[in-house]
Design goal:
By secondary structure, this protein is mainly alpha-helical. Helix content is 68%, strand content 3%. Helix 4 runs antiparallel to helix 5. The radius of gyration is 18 Å and the shape is globular.
């Protein structure tokens, strides 16, 4: 079990990770630069070249990047346990779709996103120790607190 203060550090750390990983997705221009690096990395891992992105693909990646950045800043500034729980749920959803894409495409690059996503989800799913609960008391935490 984690203390609330330790859990808040996990929530903040996951938010910082998200800012670093998703900032390049926030604009079409930065994503196109990132895409070239991701393509080279995927090919070096034995995958096929990534498909070219058109304007609608860039729109979707920029929307994704923008929303994740805003959500990440909220969690960095106010790392509440309930935000960590919601983030864990979102990470499980993201992981599901990444696993689906991995099964459909076999692109090895997806492992570099899927594994940390699952790890952060698991870390933010750990039970919390309630403040003031003794050894004989039951420590538990609501999923949304």
């Amino acid at each position: 079990m984690l203390s609330v203060s330790a859990f808040r550090r996990v929530v903040r750390a996951s938010a910082i990770y998200d800012v670093l990983m998703t900032a390049p997705f926030a604009t079409p221009w930065t994503f196109l630069l990132l895409r070239e690096h991701l393509n080279a990395l995927n090919v070096s891992l034995g995958g096929a070249p990534l498909p070219l992105f058109g304007p609608l693909h860039l729109l979707i990646s920029s929307l994704f990047g923008s929303v994740v950045l805003v959500w990440s800043v909220l969690r960095m500034l106010d790392p509440q346990p309930r935000f960590g729980r919601y983030d864990a749920a979102a990470r499980y959803l993201f992981s599901t779709w990444m696993a689906w894409a991995l099964l459909e495409t076999g692109q090895p690059l997806l492992w570099l996103f899927l594994v940390p996503e699952l790890a952060w989800g698991l870390a933010q799913s750990l039970p919390l120790q309630r403040a003031g609960v003794g050894r004989e008391g039951r420590a538990h935490e609501s999923l949304l607190r």
